[in-house]
């Protein structure tokens, strides 16, 4: 792969990880490791574990997601589930609109 394509992929995946996380949380609440797996499954790249936690922390700090601990019924450790807020839903919609607008301009 060429250097420009490598940089483009890096910028459109890892550097805007928040939009992928919000997109998945739009479906339902999830815990961090589950989000990481779903990103790999749905979008075809795997973010670093630390990156996922840092992004989730910042999203929660800024009110785009909330979290709550949930006890496991099978005796496994509790998990922290993240849920999209209305503010997060608006941010996701703005982000998607921005990307769609840029794509339209690139194609014309």
Give a written overview of the molecule.
This protein has helices at residues 3-12, 17-27, 32-43, 49-61, 86-107, and strands at 30-31, 65-70, 79-84. The model has no long low-confidence stretch (mean pLDDT 94). The protein is of the alpha+beta class and 108 residues long. The longest helix has 22 residues, at 86-107. The chain has a 3-stranded antiparallel beta sheet with strand order 1-3-2. Helix 2 packs across helix 3 (32-43) and helix 2 crosses helix 5. A hairpin with an 8-residue loop joins strand 2 and strand 3 (79-84). The chain contains 5 helices and 3 strands, in the order H-H-E-H-H-E-E-H. It starts with a helix and ends with a helix.
- Global geometry: globular
Average per-residue pLDDT, rounded, comes to 94
Order of helices and strands: HHEHHEEH
Largest sheet: spatial strand order: 1-3-2
The low-confidence runs, each spanning 5 or more residues with pLDDT under 50, are none
Assign a percent range to the helix content. Answer: 55-70%
Could you tell me the number of beta strands?
Answer: 3
Count the DSSP helices: 5
Termini distance?
A: 25 Å
- Radius of gyration, rounded? 15 Å
The largest pleated sheet is described as: 3 strands, antiparallel
Strand percent estimate: 5-15%
Helix/strand/pairing category: alpha+beta
């Amino acid at each position: 792969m060429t250097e420009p394509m490598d940089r483009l992929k890096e910028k459109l995946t890892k550097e805007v990880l928040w939009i992928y996380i919000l997109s998945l949380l739009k479906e339902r609440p999830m815990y961090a490791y589950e989000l990481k797996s779903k990103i790999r499954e749905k979008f075809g790249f795997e973010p670093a574990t630390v990156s996922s936690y840092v992004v989730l922390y910042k999203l929660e700090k800024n009110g785009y997601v909330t979290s709550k601990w949930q006890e496991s019924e099978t005796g496994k450790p509790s998990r922290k589930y993240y849920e999209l807020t209305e503010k997060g839903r608006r941010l996701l919609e703005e982000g998607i609109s921005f990307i769609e607008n840029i794509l339209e301009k690139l194609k014309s």
